[in-house]
Amino acid sequence: MGGLLSDAHWGVLLILLPLFGGLCSFLWPGAVKFIGLATVSAVALSVVGLGDQLLTTGVYHHAVGGWGAPLGIDLYADGLSLFMLMVNALVGLGVSIYALDYFDQGEARRFWPLWLLLLGGLNALFLSADIFNLYVTLEIVGLAGVGLASLSRSGAALDGAMRYLMATLLGSLCYLLGVALLYHSAGTVDIPLLAERLESTPPVWAALGLICAGLALKTALFPLHFWLPKAHASASAPVSALLSALVVKASFYILLRLWLEIFSVRTEGVDDLLGALGMAAIIWGSLQALQQTRLKLMIAYSTVSQMGYLFLVFPLAAAGAFSAWSAVAYLILSHALAKSSMFLVAGNLMHFGGHDRIADLDRAVQRLPITVGAFALAGVSIMGLPPSGGFIGKWLLLNEALNQGRWDLVIVMMIGGVLAAAYIFKVLGFAFTQAPVTHEPKGVPAIMEWSALLLAVAAIVLGFLASPLMLILGIGETVQLMGAGQ
Amino acid sequence: MNIPMIYALLGITLFSVGLYGLIVREHLLRKILALNIMGSGIFLVLVALGKRSVGDLPDPVPHAMVITGIVVAVSATALALTLMLKLVEVSGSAVLHDAPKERS
Amino acid sequence: MEAIDIALGLFDLLLVFLLLWLAWLVMSSEDLFKAIVLFVAFGLLMALVWVRLEAPDIALAEAAIGAGLTGALLMAALDRLNAVKPMPAAAVVTSAKREQPSLPSKVLPLVALVLIVLGLGYALLSLPDVADGLVPNVKEQMAQSGVKNPVTAVLLNFRGYDTLLEMVVLLLALLSVWSLGGVRKLSPRNTNPVLASLCRVLVPVLILVSCYLLWVGADAPGGAFQAGSVLGAAGVLLLLSGWHVEQKILLWPLRFILVLGSGVFIIIAAVLFFTQGGLLTYPVAQAGWLILLLESAATLSIGATLAALFFGGIPKSRVDQ
Amino acid sequence: MNWHTWIPLFVVVSSLLPGLIIFGLPEERVGLRTILNLTGAVIKLLLVSWMIWGVYQGDHFETRVALLPDLDLVLRAGPLALFFVALSTILWLVTTIYAIGYLEGSPNRSRFFGFFSLCVTATVGVALAGNLITFLLFYELLTLATYPLIVHRGTDTARRAGQTYLRYTIFGGALILLGTVWLYQLTGTLEFTPRGFLTHIDPQHYPALKIIFVLLIAGLGVKAALFPLHGWLPQAMVAPAPVSALLHAVAVVKAGAFGIVRVVYDVFGVEFSADLGVTTPLAWIAAFTIIYGSLRALFQDDLKRRLAFSTVSQVSYIALGVAIAGPIATIGGVVHLVHQGLMKITLFFCAGNLAETLGIHKVSEMNGVGRRMPWTMAAFTVGALGMIGAPPVAGFISKWYLGVGALEAGQDWVLLVLMGSSLLNCAYFLPILYSAWFKPTPKSWPEEHHFGRQETAWALLLPPLITALMALAAGLMTGLPFSPLEWAKIIAEREFYQP
Q1: Are C and D neighbours with ≥3 CB pairs closer than 8 A?
Q2: Which residues on A lie below 8 Å from B99 (Cβ)?
Q3: How many CB atoms lie within 10 A of CB C315?
Q4: Domain boundaries, chain A
Q5: pLDDT in tens, C227-253
Q6: Average pLDDT, chain D
Q7: What's the CATH code of the domain at C72?
Q8: Do residue A150 and residue C259 have CB atoms under 8 angstroms apart?
Q9: Is the same domain home to C127 and C161?
Q10: Do C198 and C309 have their domain in common?
Q11: Distance from CA of A165 to the nearest CA of B (A)
């Protein structure tokens, strides 16, 4: 509560700016691109501001309306929240720049308001300390996601969006019932207060099950991933990038946050179940990715597999909380950058050749070297090869797994890396082939090529920024609140 | 067992019936109905359990949450219905084909 | 007293069984039209339940939105669905026939259903019988809230931030619907003269009711959502009666009204943030009229949005070609 | 600011930067590309010379950057590192000249030279790596940088060869990663230390250490083409000749062999490895690979494939020398790192010349080629004789020290392996030399190109001559202060005799 009047509240700006920008872009369709880019840039600057603030003053707390929990809603930001906001800002900026040239005028007018409101919802989500408020932000994210997924209005996109809508609504409802049970068990929806008050009772267990199931469905954890490939693969490229990089991470973040703050001490078996499903996701997703003949489907299945890595945090968090979740946070950031880059690359290739059949990518290397380079660099991070953010995350996670003697996790992670290499190099191999040109290629605007490359380069550069980023992740009391470890 | 608890139990039963319908029925309109029934069930749980307070006033916080929830539900329903109509227009079917419902 | 309690108890039980039965029918009946009608009935009974649970605010919202608007949306959707498909009845029946599941896939979900009910039921029953929730906190702060209706206080003050985001959800639903492009117009049989003349009477009444609900919300059941949904219902009636909206209204003014609710909310939040140092921190003296201002804007937006959602497609305007 | 802390980084950057710029150059900027390439190579050579001189004087060169809170990226110029760096720098310069000549007029040269530079960057990084994680980083980078070179031609065979190469190397990389993490778990450090950093470890971890050793050696063995992990190497022959030269002599294969040296000496330590009992199996595998590779080479008609199997055989000399675990054998193994490089690159340059000038790809087409291309074949002869181990070419020195070292370590069976291998070397090289010099010239060559008065282009002819002369020099002038042998002795001394 301290410093209510003293500090700059970058956190509040992070929520209000994109929402306001979204409304403005809806009111002035002629200026969507300008409004959009200005808003996203301002959000990125605010994230920097928030980071600076957190590094100097520690955790950010803001009681909305001045009421404070339990009656009011609290905003809260620590290292983990900041990290997720950084993901938003970085990926958001990259994809926004790409979108400038990707959409025609009509699509741009529909894209920008939805995307800016999505950004506002995501920022609000990462800043919230209130599980009911999180529900509302989840709905913003979900509905905006569906709107974006159906943006191209093609049959496949509508089908994918419909599956996504069903899954996301069901997930939200399960989560909401869990929230209801928690509220009536503890008389509060504030996360820190819940952590203090909750005991291991049947309703809490039921809530845990419902919340885990609902959020796992939204995060597309195997075997609840069935909706993801179609939804992510059939959307427009920038949308796929946003969905895969940001939207699935949002629900995972909530799960992780609740786990660390509330559930971790009372979960025999559930952690191992989530871990086992994560392992299954890694293997299954990779194998599916390997079998795909369409690039975008392959990338989407790769997301299924990569989300699996994140769930390995749960079996590890009990014994080594910070080292486990910081590794996963690193994976989230690097996967977001790399995966968004990959979808943008897919967009470029489709724009260029009119299709995304992997076996027909002939001469892509010669004709779109920057795009293929972006794919390769992003691939390095996805495979977890050094030097890349993906490697650092995997290294940290492997370390923790070995530390706890979890050989099952270690082996699955190794296999996952090898399989990822297999599906990524399958694409690259075909990109080098020299079949005769069969169609009239369409030029790809430079902005679209370079924004994809920049995102991929960022994923690589992450490999060298571990020390400062770990410092950022360490901000806050997540560990202390849990009262475990450290 | 008191009356509010009976309503709360009704709530979870409605939630489950809706879930059942969502999984078993294929027509999208039916799935949308199912989601709405699930939502009503959850709202019931929220409000009914809020009547356990000793005083004269039932807990107003769940009431506010439910009003929020109802608005969210109608928004989502409207979007789902439009999406369904567009899908039918394009594909001619109000059923998601080869829907992998075995895992829902 | 005793007798009334018993009668009410029996009434409660009757309601419970009716609701269960209706829910089951909505899920299981083969005819979609029937399912929708039953669903509307379900919504009306739910409104009764809310009254029984001393939640009149929700009862109003449920009656207007849950039963009324959702029902209208569903009906309109079915109407359009049938218009798309040449033989709707046959199609529905065939799709029902195709659903012939094998025995295990029929039984397994049922078993799961029973298990979930039992599990969650056990969880509910092990909750303590008495819990105050946030009642004491609300009571303690009511004086500072600027209104007398506790639900309104929670919605617009204590948890006003939720409501801000919720307005965004509503707008997002509309943006997504518009983004999908137009849907087929309702078939002309809906525009009959009886309805039109009925509208001429009903719409002004509804608008009055809406204003009343908005005003009274500060002290008694009612408020922006109920008022907005009544306003939305008026809009739906107008649309059903074949009301043609002026082209120029559809450009700026409509969009302006649609974002008014969330826009005013955000602007007030920002202004309060910079003057009071807190997001949505109302000065106690000004809380009352600030809430009324927010509610008025929200009512207009909710009404317009709900009507627009019912309309479905994006109104033809030059902006979006 | 101390220059010594930055020079190792500059050595890496001196090829990375030109490489990155070259990627962006348009295809037709041949002149600028050549200047960039050569400038980078010369600067690197100068920097390396400086470091060699400095290390000789007892200076320390170390770049250290934090990678993780408790783990650094370290580039350090020790004697062993410089040994390998010097080899790759010199051979890079030569190979660049050769590649410029070889690829003249072919498409996608910017891409080629870009990856070529990245490849050398990775090799130099592997050499200078001061701990296991830095090593791993550059080792994987090497995998990624060589892949585009192997598939450069874009044919289906090239694509398949690339896939095979990746299948092996990615798998190998995963093994090394696993071994590295595990080691880090047990010890909390990965810093290369003379005589290893494991001596103080609790004996209860010895079984785990054995598995880690197997993981690391297996991972490195992929690139070093240890049997049975050598399968990718002959297939990778589809790549252009300079790439083969680079793969076999400088970069990939050598990185694997060098890694084995590092792991045995600076991670486990020779004595500790011997105590663990892991060196003897390694010696057996190496010995088997030597014989196996030679036997396979005997039956290849395709010249490059024959050379490839010869590489499989020859590189294992290095592993063998290390695994014998004695000081003199160490000298033999380590010095072979350089000697094999010089000789094998000569042979591949020559094979490339034959293919480019006369369209000769097979051994059976080489009749009388010595008369048509005397200079090329002279260089080839030097390389081949060196491989056999005939004095005074450098290969003799390696085999001599290996043999003496084996006797000193009491592993007499190694002599049999060496003799058997030399005989086999004779059997697959001498017939080539015979037919090239003494058989009559055919009426026409498969596909002849003319290059003025010379037998072939200058850029193609000079590099093999230079490397052949160097191979001779390395065998003749072993007593000079900076000869490979002297340097290898310093390395062995450090490992065995220093307190």
Answers
A1: no
A2: 163
A3: 17
A4: 10-482
A5: 999 999 888 888 877 766 666 666 678
A6: 84
A7: 1.20.120
A8: no
A9: no
A10: yes
A11: 7
